[in-house]
Amino acid sequence: MSDLVSQNVNMIFKSLKGETVHALKDISFTLKKGELLTVLGPSGCGKTTLLNIAAGFLRPTSGTITLGGKEINGPGLERGMVFQQGALFEWLTVNENVNFGLRMKKEDPVKTAKKVEEWLDIVGLQGFGNTPTYQLSGGMQQRVALARCLINDPDLILMDEPLGALDALTREKMQSLVLKIWKETGKTIILITHSVEEALLLGERAYVMAPRPGRIHKEYKLPFASLGLKEDLREIKNNKEFVTKREEILSMIWDMEEEIMGKENLG
Amino acid sequence: MITGIFTFLIIFAVIGSILYGQKLIKTEKSDAVFGNPERAKGGIHWVIVGTSFLLFTWLYYSWDIAKSFYPKSANELCQVAKVNESLLSLKYLFPIEERSHKSTALIKRENINISDKIIEIQNSPDLKNQVKEKFVNLLNKTRQTIPLLTNEKYLEIETKNTINELTNRIKQLTEDFPKDNYPPPLSEEEENKRIEATKKQLGWGATGMEVPPLPESKVGLKFHTAAQELNSISDEFFAMRNHHPEYLRLLNEIRDEIKEYRNSLNDDQEIETTYIKEIKKLGQRIEYESVFPPNTLDEMEKAIRVFDKVQKKEQGATRIKDMLLFPGGTIVASGPTCAEDGPGRWLPKPSDTFRIFGDLLKPSVGFKMIPMIWYEMMGVNRIVGFLLPNWIADIMPGKYPVHTSDGTVEPNFKSKVLDVVTGEFEAFKIPVPTGHIWDSFLRVFLGLTLGIILGVPLGLFMGLNRFAKGFFDPLVELYRPVPPLAWAPLVITVFGIDNVGKVFLLFMVSFSIMIISARAGASGTQLSKIHAAHSLGASRWQILRNVIFPNSLPEILTGVRVAVGMCWGTLVAAEFLAGTTGIGFVENVARKYMQYEVIWITIFVMGMLGLLFDVTIRKIIDKTIPWRGKG
Ligand SMILES: Nc1ncnc2c1ncn2[C@@H]1O[C@H](COP(=O)(O)OP(=O)(O)O)[C@@H](O)[C@H]1O
Ligand SMILES: [Mg+2]
The pTM is what? Predict the structure, then answer.
């Protein structure tokens, strides 16, 4: 089973001046294959750090994180990433961006081209293959980023605020797309967001993280993602349970932010 | 002729454009707000006016308008200048263009000189009192010679007569000058000779800055003849000495005393020798200066003033042409020759410039026997021989052939390879470009290419690696801030003044720029892109090649653009320093021979080439990195 298991992961940053930042403290969780986890929390609580550790860009100070029983030790093809700004290679066309991974592996160009076409179809970019990426809108760029990541067929997809920079309408469409892809491919996904609504809508589970030191503050089990596959997302937002959960989490994060402000003003 | 038509065209263009501009303003809806940038859009007609204005300024200030409408005006002004020049030495005697009489100024100065010398001697720590006394005495005696020159009592009859005679000659000239029959006709033979000589002389501007000196018109001849008469008068005046026997007696007394004293001096009395020489010189100066009693020259002054007035009036139209069409200067005479003095001299006339530009472009003429840009046929063998290094033959198996006993040499495989790598074989010819412009271009191209090939990888490396950055930074930062030309003397010493030295200098320029821009590009790569590539399974080399390099391309190409500009500027200056070809060399030689047209042409060519390079690279940038600023 390719579960993601995190055991007592600690991350402590030391700056050259000798200051230490306890970015993550005793993070332990298990993510089953095919689960969609959303992570929520005020800025600076260690969300990106957690993701970078899972991706293998950072090594934790202590603790272990394993995927399918194998310890994560550097970036790998079985874990794909989607970044906030897409991090597309803007000098390449949509096709070249999407097939980047396969090109690096020197796979057969004909097969690659077919795969690219399929994935462009799935993310809704059919016919844009030869468009230079810098000419695309923000939403389309995120679609390319999704396709680029998915074409490598990773077990785990890590998304760091992938929809953060989009306008509300595009964002809603993209949320549906994420849900659709999750359903169709059955991938394990960790999605970081700073939008409470998004965390509730997309996650089967949601973690609310607290800062200083970064830790998992509260865990929610959510029914909305499975609903969202059938119903209109906007209707779910008016769901009574949804509204109470949203208000609860919002005030929780609000309090955390206040606390940070207070500490900063004192210090 | 062409200039004339051109002048009218310019005037029409300006008037037309201004009228069009007025019409345009009337048709536009009025805009009460000041500062609307929309109002700066369009305006081709103002470009026409601006260009015309520049052209007209060029035509006018290079005196090309004068030359095209009045080709003989320079020659006439030359004759006038001759009169002015001859008159000048006489005028200086009087407060006409000066503040005081020359005699007054001289006496004042010599009195001061003598007093200063006396004070200096009295304060000198190196002289004995006895010697000081002697020197001061001598100087006082020298001072006493002045009144002997300025007292009417001592003016000799002979001198008085000469002055009167010269004054009368000036008066006579004044009387004759305006007359129609002046100058008196020459004998037929002489007149023919004069006309012959006039026909032979070249036109205005034909040989650079000179103006034909022999008078070509009736008015010109008048002034020319008057100038000759004035020259003879002033020569005679300045040959005259106002030396009364009394003055000569005192002068001789001083001389004898000095001579006696100098004979008594030893070789080692250097200070005394120096002083006595200076005292002698002071006396001599007074002796040769034209000092006269106060009112002796009054009559002559009056005559000169009258003549000056008359000759100015006689200049008539020439004077007006001088004022209107020769802005910022005029034609000046120096002895028998005349020259342009003012912008007409250093601002070449468009007509001359285009003619010379045409000559320079002719491959058979060029500059210093080298065309500006042309082609020559070159055997492929020479190119092969240049490109292939000779050691290829050395590493081939076997030995070079040795001559046999019957005195022949049998070629073998190794020697045949040598023939190939040294270019000693028969081959067809292909055209290759040559010429000053091509040479300059090639130097820039080679220096730049070397700089890019070595600078970009090193710069990328420095942008990504702490060791590389730390290790190479001191090297680059120590040589980079030095103006490239400051390195030229060293580079030329090490690599020679020819192509290698210049290419190396340009390499130094482009290398540092490329390093800095590639480094900025590499260190500016967003981490998320590198992370993305990593998680897509790219290796280190693949990331460098497929992410970091293309991501740095905008910076690198901007660096290339800067480097081209810097290289071009440095090259021209380097060619100024040394070398035998190149556009900078052309300008330097033209400067030595005061070929102002060529100087301006080279300036123009350099500007155009610089612009061409910049536009080309800008085009390349737009083509290769359309995503710039949109990432
Ligand atoms: N490379 C680093 N060096 C030092 N401190 C870091 C580094 N990366 C992150 N941090 C600190 O760790 C904490 C968590 O950062 P991050 O994971 O980016 O927060 P989030 O993504 O939740 O906004 C922050 O206080 C940040 O300043
Ligand atoms: Mg973050």
Answer: 0.78
Average pLDDT for B83-110? 90
Domain with CATH 3.40.50.300 in chain A: 4-78+156-266
CA angle B321, B325, B330 (to 5 degrees): 85
Task: Say if the Cβ atoms of A104 and B626 lie within 8 Å.
Answer: no
Minimum Cα–Cα distance from A132: chain B residue: B627
pLDDT tens readout for residues B561-570: 999 999 999 9
Average pLDDT over residues B342-356: 86
> What's phi and psi for A13, nearest 5 deg?
-90, 135
Domain ranges of chain B: 2-61, 80-203+215-315, 377-433, 435-624
Cα separations in angstroms, B427 against B283, B331, B422 = 83, 60, 13
Handedness of CA B620, B623, B628, B631 (dihedral sign): negative
If interface means Cβ-Cβ distance under 8 Å, which residues of chain B face chain A?
526, 528-529, 531-539, 542, 546-547, 550-551, 553, 625-627, 630-631
Q: What's the one-letter identity of residue A53?
A: I
Q: What is the ipTM of this complex?
A: 0.91
- CATH number attached to the domain at B435-624: 1.10.3720.10
Backbone dihedral angles phi then psi of residue A175, each to the nearest 5 degrees: -60, -40
- Statement: residue A216 has pLDDT above 80: yes
**DSSP letter for each residue of B120-184:** HHHH-TTS-HHHHHHHHHHHHHHHHHHHHHH-GGG--HHHHHHHHHHHHHHHHHHHHTTSTTPSP
**CB-side neighbour CA atoms (13 Å) of B334:** 6
Number of separate helices (H) and strands (E) present in chain B: 27, 5
